[in-house]
Design a protein that fits this description.
The chain has 396 residues and is α+β, with helices and mostly antiparallel strands. The protein has 3 domains: 86 residues, Orthogonal Bundle (Butyryl-Coa Dehydrogenase, subunit A, domain 1); 109 residues, Beta Barrel (Butyryl-CoA Dehydrogenase, subunit A, domain 2); 151 residues, Butyryl-CoA Dehydrogenase, subunit A, domain 3. The chain is built from 12 helices and 10 strands. Strands 1-4-5-8 form a 4-stranded mixed beta sheet, covered by helices on one side. It has a 4-stranded antiparallel beta sheet with strand order 2-3-7-6, with no helix packed on it. A two-stranded antiparallel ribbon has the order 9-10. β9 and β10 form a beta hairpin. α7 runs parallel beside α9 and α8 runs antiparallel to α9. The longest helix is centred in the middle third of the chain and has 37 residues.
Length: 396
């Protein structure tokens, strides 16, 4: 079956309207605030404007106010939203909320959907996903999970330390991954729990100072200490957390790629505009061979990344695991986006490193993506292992 590259007219229209909303409403706020949302008032006002424009939460089902887009359709819309650092937050498709909505819609009970998914999809609350731990705990290797949950009279008691929990400051709830069976290093035995904000056993320790600042709610270190949750806080089935996490992981990697591809396009547009108007050495910057090579290489990286994203999304929509294609797309896109932003900054010269354009902010924001959602080196290891297994099985 061939991968269909042409989007449905309704999806193309939604992408166009999202692009218009981002350019007219979001980008002025981004430029005013340096690409960082620092107040709840700004988030609420941007999201209200997105609702009025009819582009809010497009990925969730109609029951929860969205358009029910499949992965391939999300690629077009999310890229347009990602044209501004603040676009995903405004449209309510920012990490980690977007991935949590995706997972809740697929595996939560009806009661959990009403309590957590409905207000999350409406932008009334935010959320976080608490899996990553300080070394030697879970990171690139989720099986290293050390946080534990044991059954007690009132439900489950969670104990452990998490860090780099994006969006945790101000979140209405956390989805916490804890070990309910086995030991660190075992590939099974994890369970996901819904933990309400205000639970006295979930304490925010600190904001971790990082290169990136645009993800609202920060990257937080959290201590779970005698954190008791009721039996109905279990998301999915006990001991099946790693399996359920795959429902979130592959799609979330792709939606990250979609959003960052928007920033790559934005950076290229800034650079091309500069190259077209800047004159030096008797000609336009854009007429010089080295400048043309950087512009062309940017176009190639953007197009190649988009193609890999669409291929992986098509496989996900077909119900395949898409492990190989999502790893390939994530690794290439994370590195290609960095190259595009870096070249764009270089093309703009002194302007590029100034605060007059946001290329310096973009460079700081995109660099961690080569680590988040699996470091490039870990993905390459996984890609190579799968290729070797196929060869050994005679499927290559």
């Amino acid at each position: 079956m061939a991968v269909e590259l042409v989007q449905d007219p309704a999806v193309a229209d939604l992408a166009e309207r999202t692009a218009k909303f981002v350019r007219e409403i979001v980008i002025p706020v981004e430029e005013r605030d340096g690409g960082v949302v620092r107040s709840e008032d700004v988030r609420v006002s941007l999201q209200q404007a997105a609702k009025e424009a009819g582009v809010f939460a497009p990925h969730v089902g109609e029951r929860f106010g969205g358009h029910g887009l499949d992965m391939r359709s999300r690629a077009a819309v999310f890229e347009e939203a990602g044209y501004s650092l603040l676009g995903p937050l405004a449209v309510n498709i920012a990490a980690p909320d977007e991935g949590n909505m995706h997972m809740l819609e697929l595996i939560a009970t009806e009661e959990q959907k009403e309590r957590y998914l409905a207000p999350l999809a409406a932008g009334e609350i935010r959320s976080c996903f608490a899996m990553t731990e300080p070394a030697p705990g879970a990171g690139s290797d989720p099986a290293a999970l050390t946080t534990t949950a044991v059954e007690v009279e009132d439900g489950w008691r969670i104990d452990g330390r998490k860090w780099f929990i994006t969006g945790a400051d101000g979140a209405g709830f956390a989805i916490c991954m804890a070990r309910t069976a086995g030991a660190p290093g075992d590939s099974g035995g994890a369970t996901m729990f819904l933990v309400d904000a205000g639970n006295p056993g979930m304490k925010m320790v600190r904001h971790i100072d990082t290169l990136d600042e645009s993800l609202y709610g920060g990257h937080i270190e959290i201590l779970f200490e005698n954190c008791v949750v009721p039996p109905e806080a279990v998301l999915g089935e006990v001991d099946e957390g790693f399996r359920y996490a795959q429902v979130r992981l592959g799609p979330a990697r792709m939606t990250h790629c979609m959003r960052w591809l928007g920033i790559a396009r934005r950076s290229q547009d800034i650079a091309v505009g500069r190259a077209a108007e800047r004159r030096l050495f008797g000609s336009r910057l854009g007429d010089l061979g080295m400048a043309q090579q950087m512009i062309a290489d940017n176009e190639i990286d953007i197009a190649a990344a988009r193609g890999l994203i669409l291929r992986a999304c098509w496989e996900l929509d077909q119900g395949r695991s898409a492990s190989q294609s999502t790893s390939i797309a994530k690794t290439f896109t994370a590195e290609a986006v960095w190259r595009v932003v870096d070249r764009s900054l270089q093309l703009c010269g002194a302007l590029g490193v100034s605060g007059d354009v946001l290329l310096g902010r973009y460079l700081r924001e995109v660099r961690p993506f080569r680590i988040y959602d699996g470091a490039s080196e870990v993905h390459r290891w996984s890609i190579a292992r799968r290729a070797l297994r196929l060869h050994e099985a005679g499927d290559r």
